[in-house]
Amino acid sequence: MKNLVCLLVIAFSFSTVMAQELKKDTFIMQGDLIAATLFHDNGMVAQTGFYTKDNKLQGEWVSYDTNGNRKAIAQYDNGQKVGTWTFYQGDIKKEVTYNNSKIAEVRTWEVTDTRMVTNRP
């Protein structure tokens, strides 16, 4: 009986591990773009976004941590960093504005209790 219980526990553990490994990155053509969904090793979504046909990042890309919490929202135009990117770290929100793929401005906010503090001049 002990052997049967041990065998069932091992089989269940193996099936759980195999289920986590089944998540593979997906790439789907949508018009002129390729929609990408990339996964963490634990099966949670790591990033979503688009590529051009020549493999350059395009449009909005969103990154998530291993728990599914949003970490960053980025913007690309034909592989170049553009617009305002937003980064999240706990109670801190940071916005980085790009111009010609170079950092033009950085703004940081911190939420403390019910107040929001910013470093913007």
Low-confidence stretches: none
- Could you tell me the CATH topology label: Histone H3 K4-specific methyltransferase SET7/9 N-terminal domain
Q: Given the C-alpha coordinates, what overall shape results? A: flat
How do the SSEs run, as a string of H and E? Answer: HEEEEEEEEEE
Q: How much beta, percentage-wise?
A: over 45%
The tally of strands reads: 10
- What kind of oligomer do you see? single chain
CATH class: Mainly Beta
| Helix coverage percent | 10-25%
General description of the model:
This protein has 121 residues and is α+β, with helices and mostly antiparallel strands. It has one domain (24-118): Histone H3 K4-specific methyltransferase SET7/9 N-terminal domain, CATH 2.20.110. The protein is 17% helix and 56% strand. It has one helix and ten strands, in the order αββββββββββ. Strands 1, 2, 3, 4, 5, 6, 7, 8, 9 and 10 form a ten-stranded antiparallel sheet that branches. The radius of gyration is 20 Å and the shape is flat. The N and C termini lie far apart (71 Å).
Blueprint (SSEs and pairs):
Layout: H1 2-21, E1 26-30, E2 33-39, E3 45-52, E4 57-64, E5 70-77, E6 80-81, E7 83-89, E8 92-99, E9 102-112, E10 115-118
Antiparallel strand pairs: 1-2, 2-3, 3-4, 4-5, 5-6, 5-7, 7-8, 8-9, 9-10
